[in-house]
Amino acid sequence: VKNKFKNSFFSQHGLWLPSQAAVRAMSSPAGPSPPYTTLAISHPAEFVTHVELHRPKKLNAMNKAFWSEMVDCFNEIAGNPECRVVVVSGAGKIFTAGIDLMDMASDILQPEGDDTARVSWNLRKIITKYQETFSVIEKCPKPVVVAVHGSCIGGGVDLITACDIRLCTQDTWFQVKEVDIGLAADVGTLQRLPKVIGSSSLVNELALTARKLYADEAKSSGLVSRVFTDKEAMMAGALEIAGEIAARSPVAVQGTKINLIYARDHSVAEGLDYMANWNMSMLQTQDVMKSAQAAMEKKSPKTIVFSKL
Amino acid sequence: VKNKFKNSFFSQHGLWLPSQAAVRAMSSPAGPSPPYTTLAISHPAEFVTHVELHRPKKLNAMNKAFWSEMVDCFNEIAGNPECRVVVVSGAGKIFTAGIDLMDMASDILQPEGDDTARVSWNLRKIITKYQETFSVIEKCPKPVVVAVHGSCIGGGVDLITACDIRLCTQDTWFQVKEVDIGLAADVGTLQRLPKVIGSSSLVNELALTARKLYADEAKSSGLVSRVFTDKEAMMAGALEIAGEIAARSPVAVQGTKINLIYARDHSVAEGLDYMANWNMSMLQTQDVMKSAQAAMEKKSPKTIVFSKL
Amino acid sequence: VKNKFKNSFFSQHGLWLPSQAAVRAMSSPAGPSPPYTTLAISHPAEFVTHVELHRPKKLNAMNKAFWSEMVDCFNEIAGNPECRVVVVSGAGKIFTAGIDLMDMASDILQPEGDDTARVSWNLRKIITKYQETFSVIEKCPKPVVVAVHGSCIGGGVDLITACDIRLCTQDTWFQVKEVDIGLAADVGTLQRLPKVIGSSSLVNELALTARKLYADEAKSSGLVSRVFTDKEAMMAGALEIAGEIAARSPVAVQGTKINLIYARDHSVAEGLDYMANWNMSMLQTQDVMKSAQAAMEKKSPKTIVFSKL
Amino acid sequence: VKNKFKNSFFSQHGLWLPSQAAVRAMSSPAGPSPPYTTLAISHPAEFVTHVELHRPKKLNAMNKAFWSEMVDCFNEIAGNPECRVVVVSGAGKIFTAGIDLMDMASDILQPEGDDTARVSWNLRKIITKYQETFSVIEKCPKPVVVAVHGSCIGGGVDLITACDIRLCTQDTWFQVKEVDIGLAADVGTLQRLPKVIGSSSLVNELALTARKLYADEAKSSGLVSRVFTDKEAMMAGALEIAGEIAARSPVAVQGTKINLIYARDHSVAEGLDYMANWNMSMLQTQDVMKSAQAAMEKKSPKTIVFSKL
Amino acid sequence: VKNKFKNSFFSQHGLWLPSQAAVRAMSSPAGPSPPYTTLAISHPAEFVTHVELHRPKKLNAMNKAFWSEMVDCFNEIAGNPECRVVVVSGAGKIFTAGIDLMDMASDILQPEGDDTARVSWNLRKIITKYQETFSVIEKCPKPVVVAVHGSCIGGGVDLITACDIRLCTQDTWFQVKEVDIGLAADVGTLQRLPKVIGSSSLVNELALTARKLYADEAKSSGLVSRVFTDKEAMMAGALEIAGEIAARSPVAVQGTKINLIYARDHSVAEGLDYMANWNMSMLQTQDVMKSAQAAMEKKSPKTIVFSKL
Amino acid sequence: VKNKFKNSFFSQHGLWLPSQAAVRAMSSPAGPSPPYTTLAISHPAEFVTHVELHRPKKLNAMNKAFWSEMVDCFNEIAGNPECRVVVVSGAGKIFTAGIDLMDMASDILQPEGDDTARVSWNLRKIITKYQETFSVIEKCPKPVVVAVHGSCIGGGVDLITACDIRLCTQDTWFQVKEVDIGLAADVGTLQRLPKVIGSSSLVNELALTARKLYADEAKSSGLVSRVFTDKEAMMAGALEIAGEIAARSPVAVQGTKINLIYARDHSVAEGLDYMANWNMSMLQTQDVMKSAQAAMEKKSPKTIVFSKL
């Protein structure tokens, strides 16, 4: 195991190496954390929240409960100053099999309404609600690292494209599955995937043919920024990245996430204007002085005590 | 030849393997299909239309006829329910040598007009008309797979960047040629290439120096999503991809294309809103039930009979 | 040394091979060019301007003088018809260590103002002014090739993402450093980096963890379009690319840059409309005829005499 | 009183004349409707909800409770098929005195946070939350008619500009008050007022000088579309307008509101595209046939029974 | 009749007074101009085209033929250099009764399609096609003056909001009728009306209640810029305005229309950029010199001979 | 004269009545203020800057000097904390006759350039520079009140539409003159006028026919927000408005201007987001407390001493 940690990406800093205990703590044998029935929440390290999709017997398929629990969970995280970064992963054999068609069928296949217009009206409400399930990840100002193993199918791709940093294991495949069941993906993949990876030909191929994308092509296309040999190594890596982020000024980190997302959706000029308005107040944080001083004294950011945010 | 097909990308499904006959049918010895003089149209498989640039003696250079025939051709395709996917390729030695300067010179170099303003006015009309030649590919809701061999020069790059999925052979090179003849590319390359591949440094280098881009860099940069050893293998691959697409619900496939293009040009929030409005009616298709049932019964999508769209 | 030039990217044209003398001329032993104190300006070849960051003892750290000299320098370049292309590089051991915190501290850490609103007001002015330092590179219609060696830290990344073509040496690393000193990068990196490379996961990782990005990943992610073995080879390569650009019609080249930047920030439809309005006048240049004629006569663009622009 | 109703705007249809009893029912002597403490809710006519600002002793000043009760109230209304249109008015002497500075002072003047950045962070959350108080009016698809009497100050202007139809009495004045207490209006006035009335000179004058705008200028500038002699006549008029709206197809009415708001914020071309996507399902309502038939039979829309929406 | 012309708006110039013969020529006793069956086309003065809605017995209701004839008509006008300005009016008792429900019912009420998705797909095509009927007016670079008398109902409002200058007679009323037949207006009114008049309260009232708007309120709200006593006076006025426009440089006039429409849909900064790109060529017209010279010599623009455009 | 001041708009506050001496001080018998040759600058009251167009013998026609002096003048004003509000007016008989064609002819009619493209390039630079002359008014965060008398022709309309508050005398007429000299207005009128007044029909009529707009229609259309009997009364009124603005918190006033202009060019949602980012720091001003306290103590804002901004 030591080998796995040795070629750490951050060895240059050497500031954050997760312990094996911490990594092990990221599997949740006790199951979902009440009141959630599909999510297990833990805190493997200071300021780090781990959200584990936890319906392993159902391959973490996304049932009705899941769609609303994610919203509650990330709203809680967004407002919790003890959390500065999130790791998302899946319990069991695979990351997720996507939408739980059986559980969801009534909503999607037999929506209410006295005529087509009213059925459409209700479907629009449902789609909008489900879109929110992943948009909360983006609206949450704390960075979200997602660690994918095994397979990530359909709704799973919608989920991970709303996260900030994507990792996977060598044996992972991804599949934009929706077209296989007769629908255009409508909770985020078609909107975010083209802005997440740099080859529109590949995006189109994946979305139009539902073919599998394997780990190496996921890496070369930029969908994930790192591939790990196995899940344990990946969780350690995820925790290391999360640790690096948690160790830095939350003012700087969360401002960075907010402005990166704004920049994605606006022109450079608009993004710069937004940034200037943002930093005109955020630069007035004690964190700059604390961080600059630590940097000059060659101390690790980990040693700095930042006020809560 | 069998070997070429063996490592099919979709072997996981095993649903669509093009026959050699079908692939062979994609070369058009009879020449252009009347009334077209530059395009040969064929139907190598059910729901698949093949559009072949067919002026091989002129290296498929784009003459005046070509610019308007493309518009007619894709408008016909857009409205034809028998077509669900298009493959575009070039007859003869190369894909295309780009604009046919000799044939076009009068339009571009000696535009009419009594003074500079009027010449400009007329040039604007001409440029706008020529832009439409490739924009029709994008406006056509059926996915377009383009298969490039040999070389793809100048106007050829404008063409392929308006297609959805790009393939090439190992011996292909691409060239944004316009700057070599004293003009900024004005029928699509400068607008679409940066949204098609993920390296702005490379895009700029190509557009500013007119250097050649070879197949391997085309693949690694994401311009194409696959490279094939030779044209025959590529046409088989193109037909396989087309077959995969044609086998799926046209409601799902065409909705996917329309929303992917919308997403490219809008913020994620705007794209999600558009998607919700789209699917509030499109989810009410029988295709969802048919596809879901086939999926549960482990049947290939190919076995489903979808209503025409 | 000859070997370095042999596998020139443009050998297909063979039109532009920089002499060793020209390359050597790009190092500036005499130091900054008055009135500049941080920039050395030279003209290694016809129509090529070389801007060298020149505070080698300070690792080209960006002090107060630098931020305003860049604006003056690029405004001068923008208006100078003798310049058709710019190469930017750094003197000494590394490209740049980024912002000179010592010199800048008063501006950033102790801004004036009687209350928080007034401090914010003044900070906004400062940030906006510093943003302009790199936006001038983008507003300058002449293409800018940046050649990076050693390290490129913090403000250096803001600088290079505003350039058009990025090159580096094998031993270079890049670092989005700002989060390490408690602030969200506010002079361009967060706005431009996501539009410069095609992996949002990687962009987010770099910006949120401040980890180093090495030359090979810089190449595979598309941040740079070429990696060179050492600085001398890179400067020769930069000069060759610059020479290729300088040899072509300035009407075509500068129109290309302006439209590529417009396209980045607009929908394809808006970009095409802008392009049509642009070329309705720009096509009326003698450069088209001159270039077309040279092309037909198989002459190098270098032989054409273009009017000044 | 009869005279007041005689010259009804809709006498051409003659379909909806509110009874005196209905109008009288719109004043709420019983006070706020639990659980609300600042709002009295009633149902003066079928499908019509009346929301009355009800802190008359405090001149309906907007206290902390108000800001969240509005959100709850309009979310309830948005989801209630028994409501098709809303009338908003104020109990007591005036419509509203605006923000209740005493009650709100701690939030605005002494926000929490260990440093300026953290105070700013918290203020941003508060402002965003307060903006939502009026944005819910806009997000609610049922049209909102606001009836203003006496005065409408500060936050009151933010409120009414988020409503769809504005009425006032002859003795009303409006005041964009914020600049008088040292702040730029931040919950909607600066964003919506310029899109609500057609004179930017007047908007700027109002917002920069805090001068009063009287009923006649409110009418001539288009801020209100009708002025009434007194409150009783206005409430009857409001109820008549509400009745007209309630009598029509909710599919048509709510689709109209949603598309009008979309159009305000987008180009005409984008608005038309959105509209086409909207009506491709909404035209498939039985309401069209029912309404067309009634129209042909010269029956009042009031006689049609529409399915709930 | 003379009196009517005396207080001409342009008497300051005195350059263009329509003769009674010209005005009389604008009524078309001969009926529609083949191949049109719903439009009568005439040329009451040099460079002026008159398009008359001509189904007087059907109150100029918009039948199927109308929707496509408008497109053909305005495309012809757009390309015809003999036309510099258009006047649109209606033959018979009123301007138009709006959509011809009887003739259109099959399209709208019984669209084809095997399931809801396919019906929606076809409806979207139909709506988009009908939207184009009025968008051609906007895309036509020649200014369009519309002269409304009697009533302008439903589709009529969609039509006139796409015109550039609106006039009406004292006895005219306007009605956004669509909500009365159970649908949200989908061919332009909801998109253009809010950008055509300056009171959103009034726009909302009209669109949500379908109440009539009479001439005086049409004038005070800015829907029309002039009201005339009767149709004859209005036609003379329309012809006078058209004459003023026709007498000026078509380069200036058409550039003005194009840029005004662009400005409506973009920010001021984007509009200015577009304008600069436009005029960099259009200023190079002889018309500037010709017009300036005429102005200095106090000659009427009417005396200038402009080259065709 | 006293009568003129009596029915002051602000008599409700009674806080700011300009003295006759102050009003008189606004005419500049001494001529332009060096280094300006076309502008006379004075300070008629505390924090109020008066900029007078001062080439009365040339009817304040805009010559070359004017176009650059405006930029210098407003840049100075923008940075000068002693100025909180600006009044612009014209010396002599009329406000301005617009562009000084004689002085500008060489720039516009005989631009340099070896071919059409190069002439266009240079014209674009010139147009962009001239656009800046009026955009500086908008970029200056201090509100600008413009007081127009006599006539305001051509470039004058471009100027006043960039100001914040527009006043005129009873005898004023406005004219969008450009079309009369063969060009589309290119320094702001076509972009700003449609966003300044609420009738697109009127805007189009003015821009396409160059007819005069008189004071009463200027008022009813909202171009000006007030009309005065004569220039003296107007200057008093302008000074009173300016005084009202100058007496209020510069943080509130300038934030209001900046956000109003942002709102004009963005959707309501974007505007609200911008506003929240703005006020998260600006609310932390002492001005809120000072202003609130004065308001509670019924003191005039004039008595408050605000820190400089």
UniProtKB/TrEMBL annotation, chains A, B, C, D, E, F:
GO cellular component: mitochondrion; peroxisome
InterPro entries per the UniProt record, alphabetical: ClpP/crotonase-like_dom_sf, Ech1-like, Enoyl-CoA_hydra/iso, Enoyl-CoA_hydra_C
Compartments, record wording: Peroxisome
Catalytic activity: (3E,5Z)-octadienoyl-CoA = (2E,4E)-octadienoyl-CoA; (3E,5Z,8Z,11Z,14Z)-eicosapentaenoyl-CoA = (2E,4E,8Z,11Z,14Z)-eicosapentaenoyl-CoA
Pathway, per record: Lipid metabolism; fatty acid beta-oxidation
Chief location: other
A Pfam family reported for this protein in Swiss-Prot or TrEMBL: ECH_1
Record key words, sorted: Acetylation, Fatty acid metabolism, Isomerase, Lipid metabolism, Peroxisome
GO MF entries: delta(3,5)-delta(2,4)-dienoyl-CoA isomerase activity
GO biological process: fatty acid beta-oxidation
Family membership: Belongs to the enoyl-CoA hydratase/isomerase family.
Biological function: Isomerization of 3-trans,5-cis-dienoyl-CoA to 2-trans,4-trans-dienoyl-CoA.
Protein name per UniProt: Delta(3,5)-Delta(2,4)-dienoyl-CoA isomerase, mitochondrial
Naturally occurring in which organism (per UniProt): Dicentrarchus labrax
